[in-house]
Amino acid sequence: MTERLSAMDASFLAHAKPEHLLGVRLLVFAGPAPGFDAFLDHVRGRLPLAPRLRQRVRRGALELRRPRWVDDRGFDVRRHVRPMELPSADSGWDLESLSAALLNAPMDLERPLWEMRYIEGLPGGRFAAGVRFHHSLGDGNANTSLLAELFPPLAGAGPGTRSEPGRASRSPGVDPARAVKRGALRLERRLASLHPRRLRRRARRRAKAIALARRSPSAALDRSVRVDRSVRLLSVPLADLRHARRAFDTTVNDLVVATVAGALRRTAIRRGAPALNSFALIAVSVRRPGDPEVGNRAASIRCELPIAEPDARERLR
């Protein structure tokens, strides 16, 4: 089964660099740890429900066309799922350090674009799975759906159990009739795009995109992303966030943005730089009900971060 990457998915692959485009998720499970072999068997047993995880990217000749997802005939789950021990407390390594190591390691783009590490030795007998996906595999919602297939939040779903047959339909196959229709529509759109009016509108949209990408006025915080990134984990009770949301008549997302703005303000002041407002491009899902839960379906909005505002309450307004 093959399927062409969407334009957005292909763009993430085409512009892949070591310093970005890998999303890492850390799943912490209550103990006792099952052992690596049992964990591997569990993942292997659920992979048929997430066929995208068994596919690699095949690029076309001279890369004149968008690449395609194709089944990896040499797929071996052991190349993607490996054990990773948490060193002793006096080693200086912890779960954050291991997460950073997973985030910064290069990914083989010739194989299916995901990896998983089984981590034992957490306090309280817990264990964890460190999972990373290349951004071309999907956005946050899509990758969360993939993880839900591997680790269903169903009571009593043990290793190797399967979801109901209907759930596997989330990953679409190829419908020849729909493929022909889509091809005809693409041709129609390409012909229509040659009209001068369409060309002018496209030029205006691209000019706006360039304007959004201009440098932020807060130069002290505008740094290139390095390969050796660090990771810090913070746990906040969702009940507390919901209480604050109701108290200030806002949203959890707004609370997060205001918190980030406050952290950037403190960082700028600590560096002796002016705490100037800056801008962020925030991804928002445009996935509609009924859309396949694979790939990237997102847009960006330009949001001003109130870094200059010293009052935390005012940053929420």
Could you characterize the architecture of this molecule?
- Helices cover 34% and strands 17% of the residues.
- The protein is of the alpha+beta class and 317 residues long.
- The protein folds into two domains: 168 residues, Chloramphenicol acetyltransferase-like domain (Chloramphenicol Acetyltransferase, 2-Layer Sandwich); 97 residues, no CATH class.
- The strands form three sheets. The protein has a four-stranded mixed β-sheet, with helices on both faces. It has a three-stranded antiparallel β-sheet with strand order 1-4-3, with no helix packed on it.
- The longest helix has 19 residues.
How is the secondary structure organized here?
Blueprint: E1 3-4, H1 7-14, E2 22-29, H2 36-46, E3 55-58, E4 68-71, E5 81-85, H3 95-104, E6 114-120, E7 127-134, H4 140-150, H5 176-192, H6 196-212, H7 238-248, H8 252-270, E8 278-285, E9 298-305, H9 312-315
Parallel strand pairs: 5-6
Antiparallel strand pairs: 1-4, 2-7, 3-4, 6-7, 8-9
Side by side, the strands of the main sheet go 2-7-6-5
Based on secondary structure, the structural category is alpha+beta
> How many DSSP-defined strands?
9
Q: pLDDT under 50 segments (min length 5)?
A: 154-177
Average pLDDT taken over every residue: 77
What is the CATH third-level topology name of the largest domain?
Chloramphenicol Acetyltransferase
First CA to last CA: what distance? 50 Å
CATH superfamily of the largest domain: Chloramphenicol acetyltransferase-like domain
**What's the Cα radius of gyration?**
22 Å
Percent helix among the residues? 25-40%
CATH domain class name of the largest domain: Alpha Beta
SSE pattern: EHEHEEEHEEHHHHHEEH
CATH-level-2 architecture of the largest domain: 2-Layer Sandwich
Taking the sheet with the most strands, its summary is:
4 strands, mixed
What is the overall number of helices?
Answer: 9
Query: How many individual domains?
Result: 2
Strand content: 15-25%
The shape is globular
